[in-house]
Each structure stands twice: as structure tokens, then as C-alpha cells.
Design a protein that fits this description.
The complex is a heterodimer of chains A (159) and B (569). With 159 residues, chain A is mainly α. Helix content of chain A is 71%, strand content 0%. Chain A has five helices and no strands. Chain B has 19 helices and 23 strands. In chain B, strands 2, 3, 4, 5, 10, 18 and 19 form a seven-stranded mixed β-sheet that branches. A five-stranded antiparallel β-sheet of chain B has the order 12-11-23-22-21, sandwiched between helices. A three-stranded antiparallel β-sheet of chain B has the order 1-8-9. The longest helix of chain B has 34 residues, at 2-35. The N and C termini of chain B lie far apart (138 Å). The mean pLDDT of chain B is 92. Classes of the chains: A mainly alpha (159), B alpha+beta (569).
């Protein structure tokens, strides 16, 4: 009677008697699945961490770029303020310079220079201006104004 | 039995109440989860999502040689939330040197009961960035763009200004505001409890697009010089103000343009509002005898007079019932057309207008662009005022007075453009101040635009010769040694209620040089000079001083040097 109720507490017996005891193949499959999920999870976390770090880095670089651009703008402005003509004029006068009042042009034979002074804005525009000149001969708006004026004059004359 | 029935009744009642309550709950759940699902989902999304508008950089303004005239600089507004600053004493110790503010004053602000206190406005960029680096909770540094004009008050009227909200007003800033301001960027994403956008997760970043950079036709050396000369002239002649316009007649490009008094666009708040309007495009005035150039051009072009033709000047002429006199009240008897210009004879020019007739005369005035906008790319331009025979208030006598610039109101730019048409062989050019527009995508060069032909090339050439000769005959103060100058003085009386002011005048001179190949046109207006009321003794010498320096700045050799150069080549 007593042997029937006796329960062995040795670990191997306990494990053997567990109700969810799996066979070794199922256990291996379970472990593989766990490892796969862990790997995927680890990969996801690594990627997410890298993306976050990169995003923060991009934000920081964007901020740094903005700051550098702003510093550049401030320096450009400072240069412009130092180059301001009112300031240069004062400095030049302090150094003994004066405005040019008597300019003499000298003709130097065979001096290499273009026949006409270059006018950058003209070189492109002149060909178009030739067209514009032709177009300007007839101005519809002006023609209409003239026609109305003439008609008004004719009406006044007929009265 | 009775007790059992009563008990059942209570149980049924409780069950019914609970069922009803359950139904209400289920109904509400269906409403929230199904019927209004999208609304609540959007509310939840909005709670987590944040939108950050990134302001764009306003475009720069540069002169034709790329010298900077206007640009943005970042400044910081420093403020604090005293209640969340953990150690105000240590913060004050760090801040007071940086902000250059007394420590006690700073400490008083940082220990006040207010939820927010401003500490400094417009602090330099370095200060703002240092405070951001400190990362002290409760201390804020808010960036703000400020428009700066490095040349100070130079070109104030033509540039305009930008207010604290980033809106451009007047001049180029006003006219090209949309182009200069750029397009704001946008950053959207999930918001952290601190209100910052979390980099991880769905986010969207649209970078801001900076405003276009404008390259003007203005030459800052020319601008600086005309401003200096105008101020000198206004002081020397005891005038109230004045204007100068420098144009390139062949293209309509504005090389310089100024009016005095002006203001400093860096500190526009300190100036009177009426100074913001640019008199060159906004203020109309009676041009006086400079207008004779237009009447003479019309007469020559219509063929009612010739350059050699003569008229008899009996000292007065009646037009439409009004007697017109010469400025000197003298009769000059038989004079040719060049003398009419040289002696500035009202009687002579009125005869030209009468010979033209009202219809042809006003048609020519319209062709020259009077009474309408020049459509220059500048803000707040006015059209002037010109009555025509179609207007009810026009009178026959207006034909006579208008011929010498009385009773007609024009803007200085209109006069400059009209005289420029004579210099440009009869072609009226559209005035413009922007030469090139450069933005992130393209570069556009502004080409000169011919508005219309106002007189024939022959008429323009003939009139130029007459104007040159007229200045020589009058021994004008505007003559520039070595150069042939074509031009005309004007002394306009100033209209007041009931007539004209007995003494005050508006003296002017419009001229161009070299006359055989006009490269630059200058209009000088001196407002109410007191040392002399005449254009020939105030505006003309100012023109001369300006022209003498212009030929150096713009490298225009004198006539003999150009001829020698041509013969050598």
C-alpha cells in the first residue's frame, strides 16, 4: 500500500513524468524556431537602432549645415559691410586719396584691345533688339488708341 | 410564495437594467470603433504627429558687379522660463557676460514669478548657438532672420525694406517679394513627449527652397556718387530735397536712382513713413521746360516744323483764351527752333503745339508714355496726371501750357524714359532695375524691352543735334569739357491752391552724353532751391558734376579720344 503512494523525487524521474514532455525532435524544432525569431528580432533591433542613429546623425548634420550656412552668410555680410563704399571713401580720404577730376586718355599704338568696349548685356540682346525694333514699328495698343482718338476727332468734326 | 415572486421581480429588474447598460456600452463601443473610427484615429494620429515649418532663406540683392546690397543674417531672441530653471544663480553667472547685461538685472528676470521672460532680442548668431549648446532646461534661443543692408542708407528707396514678419515693402524688396522670399520647407513625424520629432518612424522632410538672388542693373559706384552729389547740391542750394536718375538709354537699365531725404532700411522704424515712397516712381511733379523736348520732338516728327524753321516771338501768345508769356517776359522776335530750346521760349514752343493741334499733340504725349505707368519693376509706381481733350476738365488753353510742362504732372522716371527715347534713336525702352535672376534651378537674364517707337530715327537724331547746339548757345552750366552733351533745363513753378507759388520752383535738368553715341542719361531734380530758383544755375551744374564722374566710372572716353581710337584701329 505504501509503495503505491510513493513518488520518486529524483530529477530525471520528475522530468520524465512532466505532462508536456516533448520528444527530442520537437524540442530541437522549437529551439530552432526560437533561434530564428531571436535572430530576426536581433536583426530588426540592430537595423532600427542603426536607422535611429543615422536619423539623429542626419538631423545633427542638417543643423550643422544650417549653422555653417548661417555663419557663411554672416561672414559674407561682414565682408560687404567692410567693403561698403561709404567706409572705403572715408578710409581712402584718410590715406590721402581724392576723387579723380582730371582724366586724360592716352592712345597707345598697337595696344591689344577690342575695337569697341565690350558690353556683356548687349552681346546677347542686340540680335533680339533688332527684332524688337521691327516689332516696335507696329504697336497694336498704340494703333487702337490712335484709332479711337481719330474717331473721336472725326465725331467732333462732324458736329 | 409572495416572497419568491418579489425576489424574481427584483432579479429581472436588475438584469434588465444591467442589460440596458450593457447595450449602451456596446452601442458606444460600436460608435467609437466602427462609426467614428476614422475621426478618432485621426485625432490620435494628430496627437502623436507633428509638423515643423522650416522658413526659407530670403534671396540676396546684389548690384551689377555682384556687390552685396541686401542679405539675411540669423539672430537669436533669448528668453527664459524662470519657474523651470533649476539654478538661476549659476545660469545668471554664465549668461550675463555672454549677453552683456548686468548680472543683477538678469538674476531679477530669472527669479521672477513670470512663466516667461525675454532676456535679449537680436543676439548675434554665436551667442544663440552657445546657449543652444549649453542645453539649459528653461533657457530658450529662438532663431530669427533679419534683413541687413550692408551699404547702410545707400539705395534705400530703390531697395525698399523687409519688416519683422519677413514681408518686403517698396522698391525691389516690395516688387519682387514673392521671388525673394522662397518657399518654406516642412518636416513631419512622430512627436516625443518633449515636443521634438522622433527620427525613427514614419516621417517626411521637404527642404525649404531659398529665394532667388537678384542682380540689379544698378552700379553701386554710380549710386554712391549720385547720392553724395545730390546731398551736396541740396545743401549748397538750400533746397528741401531732390532726385537723380541715371539710365542707360539703349536698354532702359537703371544704373542709379536716388532721392533725398532718404532713410536707413536697417532701421526703417526710426523714419517717417512718408520717406518710404520713392519719389522717382511715386511722386508726380510739373516738369516745366524739360517737357519742351517732348513737344519739339512731336513737332519735328509730325513735320509741322523743321530744325531750321523760324517763328516770330512777340513776347506772348494767346491759346484758348489764356495769354502765355516767356519766362523773361521779353519778345525775342524771329528765332529758329534751336533758339526756342536754348532760350527756353514758352511762346515759341506753344506755337509748335498749336501747329500740331490737340489730337496729334496728345497722341504724341501718350506715345511717350505720359499718363500711364512705365511698368518699371519697382513697387508703388504712379502714372502721373495728364488731361486730354476727352476729359471734361480739359481746356483749350491746356494745349499751350502743357507744351512747356505746365498743367501736366509726371514722375521723374517718366521724364527720364521719355528723354531717353530721344537718345535711343526714337525707341522708348521699358525701364528696368533687375538684370539677372538666379535661383536654385535656373538663371534668367532680363532682356531690354522696346515699348514702342515714339518718333522716327531722323527726328531723334535731329533733335539731339538741336539740344547739343542749344546748350552751347546758352553757354549752359551743364556742359562737360571733352564731351557733347544733349539736354534741357527746366524751372517749374510749384502749384498751390489758386495758382502757383510766387517764388518756389522745382529746378531740373535732363541730359545725355556722348550726344553722338548716348551711353548714359541723367535727370537731376532740385526741389525748391533757395539760392537760385533756376534750373540752369542749380540742376545743370549738378548734372555736370555727376556726368564728369560718370564718364570715369563707366569708362566713357571723350570725343577726341574715341575718334583717335577709331582712326588708330
Amino acid at each position: 500500500m505504501s509503495s503505491n503512494i510513493l513518488i520518486s523525487l529524483r530529477p530525471e524521474n520528475v522530468i520524465r513524468q512532466l505532462p508536456w514532455r516533448l520528444d527530442s525532435k520537437a524540442a530541437l524544432g522549437f529551439l530552432l524556431l526560437l533561434a530564428t525569431f531571436s535572430l530576426v528580432g536581433w536583426l530588426y533591433l540592430t537595423q532600427a537602432s542603426a536607422v535611429t542613429a543615422t536619423s539623429y546623425r542626419i538631423d545633427a548634420l542638417r543643423l550643422e549645415l544650417d549653422q555653417i550656412k548661417n555663419q557663411n552668410a554672416a561672414l559674407t555680410l561682414e565682408i560687404a559691410q567692410l567693403e561698403a563704399l561709404s567706409r572705403i571713401e572715408v578710409r581712402a580720404r584718410e590715406l590721402g586719396f581724392a576723387p579723380t577730376t582730371n582724366v586724360r586718355y592716352l592712345s597707345v599704338a598697337n595696344y591689344p584691345m577690342p575695337l569697341e568696349p565690350e558690353k556683356p548685356t548687349f552681346s546677347v540682346v542686340q540680335s533680339d533688339r533688332a527684332l524688337d525694333r521691327d516689332r516696335a514699328e507696329f504697336d497694336p495698343a498704340m494703333w487702337w488708341t490712335d484709332t479711337l482718338d481719330n474717331f473721336a476727332a472725326w465725331l467732333e468734326g462732324s458736329k | 410564495m409572495k416572497t419568491s415572486d418579489h425576489s424574481n421581480y427584483r432579479i429581472i429588474t436588475v438584469m434588465a437594467v444591467m442589460s440596458a447598460a450593457g447595450l449602451v456600452l456596446i452601442g458606444q463601443l460600436i460608435r467609437w470603433q466602427v462609426v467614428e473610427h476614422h475621426r478618432f484615429a485621426a485625432l490620435a494620429e494628430a496627437e502623436h504627429q507633428d509638423e515643423l515649418v522650416i522658413p526659407p532663406h530670403r534671396g540676396e540683392i546684389r548690384d551689377r558687379e555682384s556687390h552685396l546690397l541686401a542679405a539675411d543674417v540669423i539672430q537669436y531672441d533669448i528668453s527664459a522660463s524662470p519657474k523651470i530653471i533649476s539654478d538661476p544663480y549659476a545660469t545668471a553667472d554664465r549668461l550675463y557676460r555672454l549677453l552683456n547685461v548686468p548680472r543683477d538685472e538678469l538674476l531679477k528676470s530669472l527669479t521672477s514669478d513670470s512663466t516667461w521672460v525675454p532676456l535679449a532680442k537680436g543676439a548675434p548668431q554665436a551667442v544663440g548657438e552657445t546657449i543652444i549648446e549649453w542645453d539649459i532646461v528653461g533657457l530658450q534661443a529662438e532663431p530669427r532672420a533679419k534683413r541687413v543692408y550692408p551699404e547702410g542708407d545707400m539705395g534705400a528707396h530703390l531697395l525698399g525694406f523687409v519688416n519683422t514678419n519677413g514681408n518686403g515693402f517698396y522698391g525691389v524688396e516690395g516688387f519682387y517679394d514673392d521671388m525673394l522670399r522662397g518657399k518654406a520647407g516642412l518636416q513631419t513625424g512622430e512627436r516625443s513627449p518633449f515636443g521634438e520629432i522622433i527620427p525613427l518612424g514614419p516621417s517626411h522632410y521637404v527642404p525649404p527652397i531659398s529665394g532667388a538672388t537678384l542682380y540689379l542693373t544698378v552700379d553701386r559706384s554710380v549710386q554712391h556718387m549720385i547720392e553724395r552729389e545730390l546731398q551736396t547740391a541740396v545743401k549748397a542750394y538750400g533746397a528741401q530735397g531732390g532726385s537723380v536718375v541715371v539710365l542707360e538709354p539703349e536698354t532702359g537699365a537703371i544704373l542709379g536712382m536716388t532721392s533725398y531725404p532718404a532713410y536707413d532700411p536697417n532701421n526703417y522704424n526710426a523714419s517717417d513713413e512718408h520717406l518710404f515712397f520713392d519719389p522717382v516712381v511715386s511722386q508726380q511733379y510739373e516738369p516745366g521746360s524739360v517737357f519742351k523736348v517732348v513737344t519739339m520732338a512731336a513737332g519735328l516728327d509730325a513735320g509741322v516744323i523743321g530744325p531750321e524753321g523760324t517763328i516770330y516771338d512777340g513776347g506772348s501768345i494767346e491759346v484758348g483764351g489764356r495769354v502765355i508769356f516767356n519766362w523773361d517776359r521779353q519778345a525775342h522776335e524771329t528765332v529758329d527752333m534751336t533758339d526756342v530750346l536754348a532760350k527756353s521760349l514758352n511762346v515759341g514752343i506753344a506755337q509748335v503745339a498749336v501747329a500740331l493741334g490737340k489730337d496729334r499733340f496728345y497722341t504724341y504725349l501718350k506715345r511717350f508714355g505720359f499718363g500711364r505707368l512705365t511698368e518699371a519693376d519697382l513697387s508703388s509706381e504712379g502714372p502721373g496726371t495728364m488731361k486730354t481733350p476727352k476729359d471734361a476738365d480739359w481746356h483749350e488753353s491746356d494745349l499751350g501750357t502743357n507744351s512747356f510742362g505746365q498743367g501736366v504732372a509726371v514722375t521723374p522716371l517718366q521724364i527720364a524714359v521719355a528723354v531717353g527715347a530721344i537718345a535711343n534713336e526714337g525707341l522708348l525702352m521699358k525701364p528696368h532695375i533687375v538684370n539677372r535672376v538666379v535661383d536654385s534651378e535656373r538663371e534668367v537674364e532680363v532682356k531690354p524691352v522696346v515699348v514702342r517707337r515714339v518718333v522716327s530715327q531722323e527726328t531723334a537724331t535731329t533733335l539731339t543735334k538741336m539740344l547739343v547746339e542749344a546748350l552751347k548757345r546758352a553757354n549752359s552750366e551743364a556742359l562737360v569739357p571733352g564731351y557733347e552733351v544733349a539736354g534741357k533745363t527746366g524751372t517749374a513753378e510749384i502749384p498751390v491752391p489758386g495758382g502757383y507759388h510766387p517764388t518756389l520752383t522745382l529746378a531740373s535738368f535732363a541730359g545725355y552724353l556722348p550726344a553722338d553715341d548716348p551711353q548714359v542719361l541723367v535727370l537731376v531734380i532740385i526741389d525748391r532751391p533757395t539760392t537760385s530758383r533756376w534750373g540752369n544755375t542749380t540742376a545743370a551744374p549738378t548734372f555736370k558734376r555727376i556726368a564728369e564722374q560718370l564718364v570715369v566710372i563707366l569708362n566713357i572716353p571723350p570725343k577726341d579720344a574715341r575718334q583717335q581710337l577709331a582712326s588708330n584701329n
